[in-house]
Amino acid sequence: MNKSTTSKLSRRVFLKWTALSGLSAAGIYLLDTYTPWLNYDQETLESLKMIPTHTDAAVNFKEWVYYAGLAASSHNTQPWMFEIKQDEINIYPDHTRRLSVLDPQGRELWISLGCALENLLISARAAGYDGEVIYPVKTDVINIRFASRASQNEALLDAIPRRQNTRCEYKLNPVPPDHLHLLRAISLEPGINLHFALDAHERTILTECVSAADVYQYADQTFISELNAWLRFTRKEAIHSRDGLYTRCSGNPEVPRWLGELFVSGTKPQQQADLDIRKMDHSAGLIIITSETDDKSAWVRTGQVYERLALSMTSMGIKSSMLNQPIEVPEVRAQMQNALAMETRLPQLLLRFGYAEDLPRSLRRNINQILVTPAPATI
Ligand SMILES: Cc1cc2nc3c(=O)[nH]c(=O)nc-3n(C[C@H](O)[C@H](O)[C@H](O)COP(=O)(O)O)c2cc1C
After folding, report:
1. Distance of alpha carbon 331 from the chain centroid
2. Which residue owns the Cα nearest ligand 1 atom 6?
């Protein structure tokens, strides 16, 4: 065999292999995407539903934990465990689910627990129970003791399964003044405040802060690796783990993991910043939740106020989404605090809000996966 025949042969073999691997990659992707037995929308209907309220206290406790588990959490890590006792519930942090790069202090972890606490208290009130909370000052637990009282119509209950972080661009319509007035008037927690940034000057400052933080984070390979680990690129991954950030919930398509990771890792920091600037420009307004101190109790109370605010917006048909990168990068957080003359008030969460259609909802783990001692499932 001469040299030209050998090279033709190897070229042919090479092309054959390339075609074969291309075809099998496409086949795996199609199978993964169009698998009728993996019905994501059906899973979300099951995972995020209203459940009938019972009068039997033991069952009630499980219902409240179910609603607590539908709360917001950083990267949808759901970093919580619940312990049901005689007349109390303990919420513990699951430190194995903390984002060690994004959240080294556990600040967002405790805010997530505060979000869950708020849903728990709302559903308990709807069933006729008041919860007295002991905040985690020196301990690593939130303790809630319940006492019965007359059940009252808890308006925010049915917003719990409908609330979502809607990450698309919003319509340009403003939120009417009467709705803004209601949002400004929601009850707060001690030490927690809302800062509405509606005028052009403050919006520009915040846009610059988000942009600077995006550039910082997307240049950091450890941030990208952690993000990739919590991204769910296909419905199969999302349904299997029932946590993390499923791409369709952010308005992005499903892709095989290798392609998704390649795309995320290849995102230029400025590209990400431009994307977020556009989203901020397509929002009716921005809200910063601030606290007076930076400790576990303040973080839990921040989460409670966020959940209350987001549920109130949901019940008014207003969408919201978080953009916390300027608070996650300490230097940018300090710049933001100075530029907005916040003095001693510390930014904890940044939200944008406006009007948009729903995006697919993110899944939650089953109740038995978040109970310290799993009880037989009744819901
Ligand atoms: C403390 C905290 C920080 C968050 N930060 C962001 C953020 O910076 N950007 C974002 O898009 N979503 C953020 N989220 C929203 C979560 O990703 C979201 O709650 C989770 O994926 C579950 O989705 P859902 O809220 O739509 O149910 C944050 C949530 C919490 C509680």
Report:
1. 23
2. 322
Q: The domain 177-354: what is its CATH number?
A: 3.40.109.10
Distance 79 CA to ligand 1 centre (A): 12
Give the CATH number of domain 44-162+363-369: 3.40.109.10
Q: What ranges do the domains of the chain cover? A: 44-162+363-369, 177-354
Nearest atom of ligand 1 to the alpha carbon of 165: 26
Nearest ligand 1 atom, CA 111: 1
Residue that wins the pLDDT comparison between 324 and 12? 324
| Ligand 1 environment, Cβ below 6 A | 72-76, 108, 111-112, 115, 164-165, 167, 245, 321-325, 362
Residues 67/38, Cβ–Cβ less than 8 Å: no
Q: Of all atoms in ligand 1, which is nearest to the CA of residue 75?
A: 17
Per-residue pLDDT at 369 exceeds 90: yes
Q: Report how far residue 302's alpha carbon sits from residue 194's, in angstroms, rounded to the nearest whole number.
A: 10
Q: CA–CA distance from 314 to each of 155, 158, 309 (Å)?
A: 11, 10, 9
What value does the mean pLDDT of the chain take? 90
Q: Can 44-162+363-369 and 177-354 be said to share one CATH topology?
A: yes
Residues 6 or more apart whose CB falls under 8 angstroms from that of 208 comprise: none
Whole-number Å distance, alpha carbon 74 to ligand 1 midpoint, is 5
Closest CA to 161 of 130, 128, 118, 119: 119
Q: How far is the CA of 77 from the centre of ligand 1 (A)?
A: 9
Residues 120-124: what's their mean pLDDT?
95
Burial class of residue 358, CB neighbours in 10 A (0-12, 13-18, 19+) = exposed
